[in-house]
Write a structure and sequence with these properties.
Number of helices of chain B: 2
Order of helices and strands of chain B: HH
Largest interface: A-B, 60 and 55 residues
Structural class of chain B: mainly alpha
Order of helices and strands of chain A: HHHHEEHHHHH
Distance between the termini of chain A: 60 Å
Helix content of chain A: 55-70%
Strand order of the largest sheet of chain A: 1-2
Shape of chain B: flat
CATH class of one domain in chain A: Mainly Alpha
Number of helices of chain A: 9
Structural class of chain A: mainly alpha
Strand content of chain A: under 5%
Strand content of chain B: under 5%
Largest sheet of chain B: none
CATH architecture of one domain in chain A: Up-down Bundle
Radius of gyration of chain A: 24 Å
CATH topology of one domain in chain A: Four Helix Bundle (Hemerythrin (Met), subunit A)
Oligomer: heterodimer
Number of strands of chain A: 2
Amino acid sequence: MNVLLAVILILAAISALGVVFSSKTIYSALSLVLTVALLAAVFLVLNAQFLFVVQLIVYAGAVMVLFVFIIALLDPTAEDRPRLFDPRLILGVLAVAGLCTAVFIAARNDVTYDTACTTQAVTCMHGYTVGSLAATGDLSADPFHTFGFPENAVDRAGNVQTLANQIFHTYVLPFEITSLLLLVAAVGAVYLTRRVAVGPRRDPQAEERWRDELVEGGE
Amino acid sequence: MLSDYAPILVFLGICILFGAGVPLLSSVLGPRRPSPEKELPYESGIVPSISARRRFSVSFYVTAMLFIVFDVESIFLFPWATIVRQLRVFGVVEMGVFILVLLLGLVYIWAKGALRWD
């Protein structure tokens, strides 16, 4: 399984590099589709079937459609790609590298996120002890069964059911707030693209030139 | 457990082989007699009047954005449906509020005429 995971992640890293280094924006978008699909495969290997499907439907499907439409919305002839050794780029690479190193070091050293967590042995997140149930079998350490589900318990209840129980039972308010987030997205899209005066900008001269070229080539 | 997905992997492999193999075969075996008509984007169709490489209408963006919003909404219905019997009335009310909020959004979009294509 680890070998499979490594292969998928290496492929994902390669296609992620393709996103950055592609010569055309649309190729970058297609590389991003591949990256997202490979991350979906990671979810599948990690036994998260629902997330796998969501990743494919929402990210590889809907979000990528939006990305491609935005690329089509921008003028494809006027490509404005950043220079490879832009000082801002170097700064960005350094920032990402630093952040990744920090997260890696933190993860390797069981850094506690919440100081309210008193147990030293287990990692803490959002005030709950991660993996406590699996490690100690102590139910009281994880009153809401937030993390650390025993694998067989998840299999017995069902993967989707366990997730659903978290969304619709433990995290009801965040779930309801999600609807507001979606509402803002929908209203924002409609507001930003409202008709003020002109329709889509067209360049009649360029179209004429292009048509002439095509007819000349065809005859 | 993971070996259950082996048929899908085989299917994916066949798809990739077929998708890559057929164009390759046709480029190797097919005769090559180019003519100006064959070089047109649509060989026996209408000659395109304008370049495809121009900016698209912003209406596509609105449609894509609204699609994402209601796509994500429907994604939430799937896990909800698996435990709606255990949640009983609470589950129905909870999802009702969620859908109502988005329904208000739909009413706004409708009233603004964003669903009309013109």
